[in-house]
User: Which sequence fits this backbone?
């Protein structure tokens, strides 16, 4: 049996799933001030049914780190960084606090040191940070994913005075210094809060005699194991939307290119699937005005939901959202909403339809329209906006730059075959959306517990890059902090083999103790000749691979869950 | 530094699967380290810089510009279509005001590709800038356009294409042709009879530095642009005047390039050469992008930059002062050509395609007309036995020159003993290829 817990913004859900599907579920209100209390309560409820507790694994999705960042409950971080030639240093100091130290030292794109660290300057910086009582550090240097030496030196120097040090290349192996810096900063800034939380979760599990291994959901629709998450807490941000996307796969077994709409009270979240797999953001998640390199499912959010307000501006234009004042009129809310318009149009009769009709009539009079006409225009406007935004997201994905002639001329595009809709107003809006999108439209049953089901069934994901330079006789996998000396004959084939082997070993040790590691997909594999004086002298090899988000397959999915 | 932010579109297309040959300077990884640098800087995350995918140019786009023999399809590869398509995308973004400026950082390059194309010259087959300019004029109407070619090699292809075009000002500053391929681009090359002074060349002595190119900008290019008042400024942006470029002999630095671009303030830049692919291109390309976007580029400095070593000597400074003064006069008062009104002026050109080893002898004639830039007629004979004809009715053609173009076509159909005629009528947007069998009059047979 698998246990999934989703600590959401309003509710905390738990489900237990076995080979026959969901066998128990529980729902309690989330207490944002005390998430542990919510977890305790939901466990209390789900185990109250007298189920035996032979749980094999627990997956937990939590808003803890997300909220910590949004609400700026962040610890002050001492930042040690080097940049070298390029953008002006001020560009990188995007308000990462008062303890930002840009130090001398430069590494270039090949990983060659162009300027040494200045030991005195480093020592002074650390002393200053320590003097201000700051106990967590983030170190990041430009091109550390090519050569981690500076980051290692800085981390070693800071370690004696720090409770925790985040090392840039370990949280972000791809090229993008500002994102690496922001990611390292967040990781350090949420670390203590996360450690305290996970300690409490462990205590709570002991109380319920839960001994199964615990995994935490990540933004990319996968999980990370409890122990590793404690040094990379930043990976757990935005796991809520990821749980809901994985939930919809569990509930509907998607295998084609598709558009997913999660229509809530205030917003609609759009995600795109390519052959049944959710697409990830190319560079990483954007968060609270800073861009990070955290792998995340690509979603677009738009301010239209069931409770969105219908308004008429001074020119007589009818619009829907993004404001929300409360429940629809039909549920004794304060003002006319999209759900009321659906009542008037006869798509549903939720709550007290009469209130919808009279409210709609009153508003319509202002511009000399009938209630039905207003409802019709409002609904069409809302759904068209959702449609346009979906096409925009799709276009953005299909327009993603590629760098070879073959990909430009013969590259594949995503062409959605189906539309999946979930959320409270899904059933009501599905027939209308089906017309506008002209796609087969499916509303999965049981979407109310989708997040918890998604959490329960989600498997580990991982991404890693390898960079090898046969001239420098160096191979490096930043995410795993794996370095090896290579000889000049090192090839692309060897690089691919090495990356897959080393990643598999890592996964066996950390994630898949008793199970086969899923297929590791090689995303890019490139080999370039480096030419000096018109002859090929060495090779630059770049390989990246990933384990895509997926669900446990030996647990029942689809309609019957 | 006061920043004047511009929305910049970047079409980055490194063509990682295309090379002339594995160790040729124009090979797969030419932009690899540039990409590494741009990605590591997070350049495309800056709010005013956006990356776009190139379009794919069509053979029709190419046929607006070139006489390709035997056809556009056979002298180009898919890579050329993508590179030219990258330039087209840049133009579209700017013309439709989606961005303020655009840089098509694409390869293969194009500025040595001339009006007639039989193969590859100077790493170029298709002239990306010219395809872009004609795309602009075909879709957005007649415009005054200035092309400033800052590549270290003379932009002989672009010069050839716009030799007779008074609407396109072509300025090339490059290492002196006596010391570098293609061996042309001297101060007395000033354009044909209808576009006299619309071609300007500034040969720079070897070892000219930042100081030199900025002097040329301030004292020659800027005054000419002030007078010409272009609606669109295009930088044909070669990065190979850099002091560490392996195939040239200049002393320009990253900061020099960035300052030049800041002053020139081009609407569109299209990448040309630049072959110091590891130690320089990442920095120059980054600095030029920052300059175009109005961002601070002062920290983009080569690790081995040494100001003293790069100082140009007094002789160069003196030479440039003199050259700028005389060339400026040539722009305002070019030495007139000996031509007769309403008659054809003839130009003989011997062109060598260095990559493909083809020699081509061309006879080009332009009608000296007081009402328009004149109908043009060209024959081309290669050492491979190919004989071809091109006829062009320009965008501004007067009725007489338009009729003359059709008369030439008619006569060619009847009497031309070659393999093909390319007919370009920009006025009425009619483009024809008349091939061998159509040229063969009834009852006659020849190769």
Assistant:
């Amino acid at each position: 049996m698998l246990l999934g817990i989703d600590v959401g913004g309003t509710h905390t859900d738990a489900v237990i799933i076995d080979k026959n599907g969901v066998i128990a579920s529980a729902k309690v209100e989330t207490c944002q001030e005390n998430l542990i209390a919510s977890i305790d309560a939901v466990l209390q409820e789900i185990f109250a049914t007298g189920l035996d507790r032979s749980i094999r694994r627990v997956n937990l999705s939590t808003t803890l780190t997300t909220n910590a960042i949004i609400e700026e409950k962040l610890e002050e971080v001492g930042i040690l960084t080097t940049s070298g030639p390029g953008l002006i240093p001020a560009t990188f100091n995007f308000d990462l606090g008062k303890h930002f130290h840009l130090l001398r030292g430069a590494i270039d794109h090949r990983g060659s040191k162009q300027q040494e660290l200045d030991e005195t300057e480093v020592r002074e910086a650390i002393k200053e940070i320590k003097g201000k009582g700051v106990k967590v550090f983030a170190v990041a240097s430009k091109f550390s994913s090519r050569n981690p030496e500076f980051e290692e030196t800085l981390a070693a120097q800071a370690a004696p005075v720090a409770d925790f040090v985040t090392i840039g290349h370990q949280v972000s192996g791809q090229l993008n210094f500002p994102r690496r810096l922001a990611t390292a900063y967040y990781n350090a800034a949420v670390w203590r809060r996360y450690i305290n939380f996970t300690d409490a979760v462990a205590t709570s599990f002991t109380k319920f005699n839960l001994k199964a291994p615990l995994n935490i959901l990540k933004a990319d629709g996968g999980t990370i194991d409890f122990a590793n998450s404690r040094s990379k807490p930043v990976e757990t941000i935005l796991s809520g939307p990821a749980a809901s996307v994985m939930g919809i796969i569990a509930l509907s077994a998607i295998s084609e290119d598709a558009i997913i709409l999660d229509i809530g009270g205030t917003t609609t979240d759009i995600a795109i699937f390519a052959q049944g797999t959710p697409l990830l953001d190319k560079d990483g998640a954007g968060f609270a005005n800073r861009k990070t390199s955290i792998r995340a499912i690509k979603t677009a959010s738009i301010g239209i939901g069931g409770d969105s307000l219908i308004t008429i501006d001074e020119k007589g234009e009818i619009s829907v959202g993004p404001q929300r004042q409360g429940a629809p009129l039909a549920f004794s809310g304060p003002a006319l909403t999209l759900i009321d318009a659906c009542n008037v149009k006869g798509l549903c009769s939720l709550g007290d339809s009469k209130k919808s009709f009279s409210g709609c009539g009153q508003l319509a009079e202002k511009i000399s329209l009938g209630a039905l006409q207003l409802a019709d225009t409002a609904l069409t406007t809302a759904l068209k906006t959702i449609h346009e935004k979906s096409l925009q997201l799709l276009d953005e994905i299909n327009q993603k730059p590629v760098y070879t002639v073959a990909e430009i001329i013969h590259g594949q595009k995503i062409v959605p075959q189906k539309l999946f809709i979930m959320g409270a107003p899904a059933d009501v809006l599905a027939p209308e959306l089906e017309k506008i999108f002209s796609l087969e439209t499916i509303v999965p049953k049981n979407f109310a517990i989708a997040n918890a089901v998604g959490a329960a069934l989600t498997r580990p994901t991982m991404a890693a890059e390898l960079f090898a330079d046969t001239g420098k006789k160096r191979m490096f996998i930043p995410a795993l902090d794996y370095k090896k000396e290579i000889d000049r004959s090192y090839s692309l084939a060897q690089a691919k083999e090495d990356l897959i082997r080393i990643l598999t070993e890592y996964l066996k040790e950390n994630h898949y103790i008793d199970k086969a590691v899923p297929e590791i997909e090689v995303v890019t594999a490139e080999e370039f000749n480096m030419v000096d004086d018109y002859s090929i002298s060495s090779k630059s090899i770049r390989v990246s691979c990933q384990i895509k988000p997926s669900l446990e397959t030996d647990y029942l999915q689809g309609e019957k869950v | 530094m006061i920043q004047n932010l511009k929305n910049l579109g970047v079409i980055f297309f490194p063509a990682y699967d295309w090379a002339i040959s594995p160790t040729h300077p124009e090979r797969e990884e030419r932009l690899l380290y540039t990409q590494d640098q741009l990605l590591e800087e997070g350049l495309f995350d800056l709010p005013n810089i956006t990356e776009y995918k190139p379009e794919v140019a069509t053979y029709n786009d190419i046929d607006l510009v070139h006489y390709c023999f035997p056809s556009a399809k056979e002298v180009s590869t898919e890579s050329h279509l993508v590179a030219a398509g990258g330039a087209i995308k840049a133009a579209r973004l700017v013309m439709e005001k989606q961005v303020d400026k655009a840089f098509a950082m694409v390869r293969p390059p194009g500025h040595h590709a001339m009006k007639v194309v039989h193969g590859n010259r100077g790493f170029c087959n298709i002239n990306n800038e010219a395809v872009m300019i004609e795309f602009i004029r075909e879709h957005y109407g007649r415009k005054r356009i200035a092309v400033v070619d800052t590549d270290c090699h003379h932009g002989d292809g672009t010069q050839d294409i716009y030799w007779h075009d008074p609407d396109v000002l072509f300025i090339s500053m490059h290492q002196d042709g006596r010391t570098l391929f293609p061996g042309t681009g001297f101060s007395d090359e000033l354009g044909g009879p209808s576009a006299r002074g619309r071609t300007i060349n500034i040969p720079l002595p070897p070892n000219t530095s930042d100081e030199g190119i900025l002097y040329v900008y301030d004292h020659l290019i800027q005054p000419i642009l002030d007078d010409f008042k272009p609606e669109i400024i295009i930088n044909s942006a070669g990065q190979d005047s850099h002091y560490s470029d392996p195939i040239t002999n200049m002393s320009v630095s990253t900061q020099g390039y960035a300052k030049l671009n800041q002053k020139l303030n081009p609407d569109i830049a299209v990448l040309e050469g630049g072959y110091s692919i590891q130690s320089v291109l990442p920095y120059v390309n980054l600095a030029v992008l920052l300059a175009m976007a109005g961002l601070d580029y002062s920290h983009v400095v080569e690790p081995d930059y040494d100001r003293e070593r790069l100082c140009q000597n007094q002789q160069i400074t003196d030479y440039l002062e003199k050259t700028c003064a005389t060339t400026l006069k040539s722009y305002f008062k070019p030495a007139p050509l000996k031509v007769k009104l309403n008659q054809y002026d003839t130009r003989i050109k011997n062109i060598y395609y260095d990559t493909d080893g083809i020699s081509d002898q061309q006879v080009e004639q332009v009608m000296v007309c007081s009402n328009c830039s004149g109908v043009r007629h060209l024959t081309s004979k290669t050492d491979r036995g190919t004989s071809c004809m091109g006829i062009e009715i320009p965008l501004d053609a007067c009725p007489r020159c338009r009729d003359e173009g059709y008369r030439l076509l008619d006569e060619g159909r009847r009497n031309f003993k070659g393999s093909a005629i390319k007919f370009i009528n920009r006025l009425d947007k009619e483009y024809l290829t008349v091939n061998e069998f159509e040229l063969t009059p009834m009852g006659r047979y020849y190769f």
